[in-house]
From TrEMBL:
Keyword Oxidoreductase found: yes
Family per similarity comment: Belongs to the aldehyde dehydrogenase family.
Entry annotated with the keyword Isomerase: no
InterPro entries named among the record's database cross-references: Ald_DH/histidinol_DH, Ald_DH_C, Ald_DH_CS_GLU, Ald_DH_N, Aldehyde_DH_dom
Keywords, alphabetical: Oxidoreductase
Organism of this sequence: Pseudonocardia acidicola
Protein name in UniProt: Aldehyde dehydrogenase family protein
Span of domain Aldehyde dehydrogenase: 25-475
Residues of the signal peptide: none
Gene3D superfamilies per UniProt: Aldehyde Dehydrogenase, Chain A, domain 1, Aldehyde Dehydrogenase, Chain A, domain 2
Length: 477
């Protein structure tokens, strides 16, 4: 395999065949949502740029797919280590690009890619690359060239969750990162080159979804598309990819319910529930945006939530004390504000926040974190993904009704249950969703991550995420 080479990727550009490619004259500004100032530019890629990247990935596939699994795992592990050394740069970039508070960027945005890639690398030795079933030898082989299309809310984590297992499986990758927060893709490219990944095994083409995303999904020489983003965009990827019958993996939206049972510690459940509703400013697909509480304790839960919310400082994401920064863009700010206004118009009780500008923050894409009470289960704010710091508290009468409400949306990505442990586990089994946290169970980067219904298909992370990027062949003897 080619020796690692030191490559500088500071100049914004595509990354194709192991080198920076400037791209054409058309550029996309990267804007700091806290200030509205442009902080960088990336090229507005074209279908021709995708063609070039796919050709590089196809050419690299022969060498990389034939590389011993142990060496592929070593490269992925070195990528993880390279990202770990760049933690401060990763955190600063994400805070500037999309507004994650700097403390969250350091603790989560910069560390999750390190953990998930190291975890994937550790699977190689014991993974069943081959097995025998009767007279058949079953082998797992790389799919080929993988197209990855990723979002802005966890810009590097969502990239690495696809790229690390795809590379370990022996695939090569063409990535279209979000144009809103694209800069950490260059950090990954540099880390991959230093780790000894052959040129062409990992490629980056910047651009918009309608141009570059569509070209990736449609490309006849891309064998699989792994997409994370909105359900609307995921449906479009599926349609475009269907013409070439390529494999499609989708991780889409969510409207997760936090079911607080009568035997729960209400104060604990509300505090943890609010934290998970407003994580990353609510710009998280798994956010617990619906809090389901026994009707008799609704007002008490609302008071507890409002008291906890008062501690969530809104402000400059570069400030160490900030807990909620701006939304990722002015467009996202407008979207969230429109939902807050809709909640008021539909008659929900405003227990905290509400419509209007954030006091003292006239510049930037800020919104007022909001808690609604007495929300009807079928209300717009209880059914549609808002992707901002907006919590809907919904009363229920019986456990069966709570489960019915929890399962009543088109989504099924995540959720939570609080209560006596065995009771809560029993209710968790009834939720039609891909992940459920019981009594605040911690996120596990090695557990399968993905959704039911219109939250997508397939799984990411750990062994299940690795299996997504493999074909299965049976050889009869």
């Amino acid at each position: 395999m080619a020796a690692p080479t030191k490559t500088h990727t500071n100049a914004p550009g595509h990354w194709i065949g192991g080198e920076v490619v400037p791209g054409g004259a058309d550029r996309i500004e990267v804007t700091n949502p806290a200030t509205g100032e442009a902080i960088a530019e990336v090229p507005a890629g074209t279908a021709a740029d995708v063609d070039r990247a796919v050709a590089a990935a196809r050419a690299a596939f022969r060498e990389w797919s034939a590389t011993d699994v142990a060496e592929r795992a070593a490269v992925v592990q070195r990528i993880s280590e390279g990202l770990a050394t760049r933690g401060a740069d990763i955190a600063a970039s994400i805070t500037a690009e999309m507004g994650s508070p700097i403390t969250f960027s350091r603790k989560v945005q910069a560390t999750m890619p390190v953990a998930s890639s190291a975890g994937v690398a550790s699977l190689a030795a014991d993974f069943p690359w081959t097995e025998e079933i009767g007279n058949s030898l079953v082998v797992r082989e790389p799919i080929g060239v993988v197209g990855a299309i990723t979002p802005w809310n966890y810009p590097l984590h969502q990239i690495v969750a696809k790229v690390a297992p795809a590379l370990l499986a022996g695939n090569t990758v063409v990535l279209k990162p979000t144009e809103i927060a694209p800069l950490t893709a260059a950090i990954l490219a540099e880390a991959a080159a230093e780790a000894g990944l052959p040129g062409g095994a990992f490629n980056v083409v910047h651009g918009t979804g309608p141009v570059v995303g569509e070209a990736v999904a449609a490309h006849p020489d891309i064998d699989m598309v792994s997409f994370t983003g909105s359900t609307r965009a995921g449906k479009r990827v599926s349609v475009v990819a269907s013409d070439t019958v390529k494999r499609v993996a989708l991780e889409l939206g969510g409207k997760s319910a936090n079911v607080i049972l009568p035997d729960a510690d209400l104060a604990k459940a509300v505090k943890i529930g609010l934290a998970n509703a407003w994580i990353n400013g609510g710009q998280t697909c798994t956010a617990w945006t619906r809090m389901l509480v026994p009707a008799a304790r609704h007002d008490e839960a609302l008071e507890l939530a409002a008291a906890a919310a008062a501690k969530y400082t809104v402000g400059d994401p570069a400030d160490e004390s900030t807990r909620i920064g701006p939304m990722s863009s002015l467009a996202q700010q407008q979207r969230v504000n429109s939902y807050i206004e809709r909640g008021v118009a539909d008659g929900a009780t405003v227990a905290f926040g509400g419509p209007g500008p954030v006091e003292g923050l006239g510049t930037g894409a800020y919104v007022r974190p909001t808690i609604f009470g007495n929300v009807e289960p079928d209300a717009v704010i209880a059914q549609e993904e808002i992707f901002g710091p907006v919590l809907s508290v919904i009363p229920y009468s019986t456990e069966d009704e709570a489960v019915e409400i929890a399962n009543s949306t088109i989504y099924g990505l995540a959720g939570a249950v609080f209560g006596e442990q065995d009771h809560a586990l029993a209710v968790a089994r009834r939720l039609r969703t891909g992940q459920v946290d019981v009594n605040g169970g911690a996120f596990n980067p090695m557990a399968p991550f993905g959704g039911y219904k219109q939250s997508g298909n397939g799984r990411e992370l750990g062994r299940y995420g690795l299996e997504e990027f493999l074909e299965v062949k049976s050889i009869q003897r």
